[in-house]
Amino acid sequence: LRFLTAGESHGQALVVVVEGLPAGMAITEEQIGSELARRRLGYGRGPRMRFEQDRLTLVGGIRHGVTLGSPVAIEIANTEWPKWEQEMSPAPGRTEKPLTKPRPGHADLVGMQKYGFDDARNILERASARETAARVAAGALAKVLLAELGVAIVSHVVAMGPVTTKGDRRPGPADLEAVDASEVRCFDPEVEAAMIAEIKAAAKVGDSLGGVVEVIGYGVPVGLGSHVHWDRKLDGLLGQAMLSIQAVKGVELGDGFDVAHRRGSEAHDPITWDPATGYGRESNWSGGLEGGMTTGEPLVARVAMKPLSTLNRPVLKTVDTVTKEETVSFKERTDVTAVPAMGVVAETMMALVLAGEALRKFGGDTVAELRRNHDAYVQSLDGR
Ligand code: EPS
User: Cross-referenced HAMAP family, in alphabetical order (predicted)?
Assistant: First the structure.
């Protein structure tokens, strides 16, 4: 499974092409649209989330509600485009308002240096997390494919700035609606209020907040990924996928960081056997991953996002790239936090990785063939 996105934050549209999906997979525009809507949720999002819509067009690869096995192409139009048509025009010309006060922590300055531009907009437009809308459209397809195999992915916010959950409540697939109903996508109602208060406090002083989400994959079959080579280990693939999300700076698989401080006798999940369900683990500190392969236990990743580098009250010191004088960065409209939305993007990235690995393991040109191969494999594990 491969996918490629294109488009700028304030450009005409984002597009995504997804290649490698089997034929015969039932998918509707509404399913993709509802995933896109979930990504727009969250207390602390900026004004753009209120007045812009993700206008969706299925351009190719789907006919009469099913995939054809050909590349699926999706366009997400920016309804803001009329306001930006001049500024972002692909026609020859130049801007009247180059941005020359790069934001610390953003791609602005290094991007200008690397690509030889004197206007930060040429960098920030593509560095923007707006691009994740296109990923989420691709992820909606991956989730539908995984559902065929009984896999469901759930995320929830476990930290908002300094406010953290106690870590003992983990939502299952049936709880996703309840998580989405929370304004901060937090599964703990007591902590939810404290998170909202923290966002309000940061917003009041024009500051931003980071946080941590937990993503859980349920029903993942034993043996996705492989121990045989560095670039086939599922831990590595998940890490790369999560770290590719804008503003993400850390990923923990299972209890990775905590386990590092324990002794071996208290760090590994004891293996069990049950005649009805086969092998299992007494605990799941490994996060469902041993030797780069899934164990069949829930797959658990925690993903850390830094506070957005665009501040509503720019206070961080920077340098004007024209005058070389000390200044503060330019002010762009922004979200206070995008952590709740990032959870949906992290689900997307887990879905795309797992769908790719499921297709690699089970293959099939049709979704029925994929399911048959998957079911036969799962049956073959009986007693093994
Ligand atoms: C973003 C800044 C904001 C966000 C945007 C990402 O956009 P604007 O500056 O136009 O208000 O709203 O996110 C989206 C548009 C989206 O769909 O997620 C940034 O700087 O990354």
Answer: Chorismate_synth (MF_00300)
Total domains in the chain come to 1
Question: What whole-number distance in Å separates Cα of residue 158 and Cα of residue 212?
Answer: 6
Specify the range with the lowest mean pLDDT, choosing from 120-134, 279-293, 321-335.
321-335
Number of Cβ within 10 Å of residue 15's Cβ equals 19
Query: E strands of the chain, at which residues?
Result: 2-6, 13-19, 54-60, 62-63, 66-67, 72-78, 152-160, 163-164, 211-218, 248-253, 271-274, 278-281, 289-290, 293-294, 299-305, 317-319, 326-328
State the burial class of residue 186 (Cβ atoms within 10 Å of its Cβ: 0-12, 13-18, 19+): buried
Q: Which residues make beta-bridge pairs with 319?
A: 326
CA distance 218 to 173: 7
- Which residue in the block uniquely carries the two structure tokens 């998940």? 238
Kindly report the CATH number assigned to the domain that includes residue 58: 3.60.150.10
Task: Give the integer Cα–Cα distance in Å for 272 and 275.
Answer: 10
Residue 35: partners with Cβ closer than 8 Å, 6 or more residues away: 136, 137, 139, 140, 143, 344, 348
DSSP codes, 37-57: HHHT--TT--THHHH--EEEE
Q: What is the pLDDT of residue 383?
A: 67
**E strand or H helix that includes residue 132:** helix 132-148
Ligand 1, pocket residues at CB < 6 Å: 9, 46, 48-49, 128-130, 133, 310, 332-335
Amino acid at 246: Q
pTM: 0.97
Q: Which amino acid is at 47?
A: P
| Cβ neighbours, 10 Å, residue 27 | 19
Name the binding residues for NADP(+): 39, 45
Determine the residue type at 200. K
Render pLDDT for 157-172 as a digit per residue (tens, 0 to 9): 999 999 999 877 899 9
Helix and strand totals (H; E) in the chain:
12, 17
Distance 48 CA to ligand 1 centre (A): 7
**Whole domain around residue 199: which residue ranges?**
2-380
Q: How much distance in Å is there from the Cα of 172 to the middle of ligand 1? A: 30
